[in-house]
Write a structure and sequence with these properties.
alpha+beta, O-acyltransferase activity, Hydrolase_4 domain-containing protein, LACT/PDAT_acylTrfase, two-stranded parallel ribbon, AB_hydrolase_fold
Length: 109
């Protein structure tokens, strides 16, 4: 999938030809940001059989905060952080829905 789409978008540059860009992401949810594998020994298997130690940090439960903040460098971007917003549940989060309705200037039904 990556190879099929890698030339379509450069995440470091950000979207072009769009008047208003919003970057919305969840924060304050434990998220793995590093996997640590120990050197193999007679009792510790080598990668990939070894279970890594997960180093946890801030993020949305799936994507770590450093990756989520990539959009901060985009020109003219409006960043909205949703504390406690989880990656998969964010699309149904009332705070995101309220933001979309505010941007679109519609009232919630």
């Amino acid at each position: 999938m990556y190879l099929d789409n890698k030339g379509l978008f450069d995440g470091f540059v950000g979207p072009t030809g769009v008047d208003n860009v919003y970057c919305v992401y969840g924060t304050q949810v434990d998220t793995a940001y590093q996997l640590v594998y120990r050197p193999p020994t007679s009792s510790i298997p080598a990668f990939p059989e070894q279970k890594p130690q997960l180093i946890m940090g801030d993020g949305d439960g799936t994507v770590d905060l450093k990756s989520l903040q990539m959009c901060h460098s985009w020109p003219g971007v409006k960043v909205v952080r949703i504390p406690g917003g989880r990656h998969r549940e964010l699309v149904g989060d009332s705070r995101l829905i309220d933001l979309i309705q505010q941007i679109a200037r519609v009232k919630r039904v």
